[in-house]
């Protein structure tokens, strides 16, 4: 228990700042990613338009690009926008995920287009059809992707390490690495901090486990 207490009292309570930073970035990233990716996946699947197939190929092909190749150009872009050492600089470059788009594309293929036609007859606009009619049906997909994207943001190390330059702005994954130095390793603090770091993800999963399982198994059984 002594080590857990030291986490929030030693070094100006940096651990608390790291924890807060990780929570803010994870919430911001998850909400933005799920919303934008669902819009793209829904739009690509439910509407027919010119160059639709090449667009899908381009979206899926981005999943084959290693993240490490994008680090330098993304860093230069964040530098030109003045977003280094900010939450926005960590979140924005990866806010729209090709994997999340593909997941929503697969899920929305199960949605009945007849609902859209009926809504149009009643005078609903396209965005209203999405958030009032289709979005409630997509709740299992939202729950599943929220967990997956939250885990991605919470465990991310490389990009926050590049963007954040001050100790107080580090995320939890980056901050915990400061306990490992060439002058000595504080494993007691590191392990205590690692144990506490799993609590938010556990809470998120327990709160959304039904929608998570439903979202992963949708389409697996035909009835």
Tell me what the structure shows.
The protein has 223 residues and is mainly alpha-helical. It has a single domain, classed as MetI-like fold. Helix content is 71%, strand content 2%. It contains 13 helices and two strands; from the N terminus they run αααααααααααββαα. It has a two-stranded antiparallel ribbon. β1 (180-181) and β2 form a beta hairpin. α2 (14-46) crosses α6 (98-108). The longest helix has 33 residues, at 14-46. The model is unreliable at 219-223 (pLDDT under 50).
Topology order in helix (H) and strand (E) letters: HHHHHHHHHHHEEHH
Helical stretch tally: 13
Largest sheet: 2 strands, antiparallel
What number of domains? 1
Instruction: Quickly name the level 1 CATH class.
Output: Mainly Alpha
Write the CATH fold name.
Answer: MetI-like fold
Cα Rg: 21 Å
- The CATH superfamily is identified as MetI-like
Instruction: Tell me the strand percentage band.
Output: under 5%
CATH architecture: Orthogonal Bundle
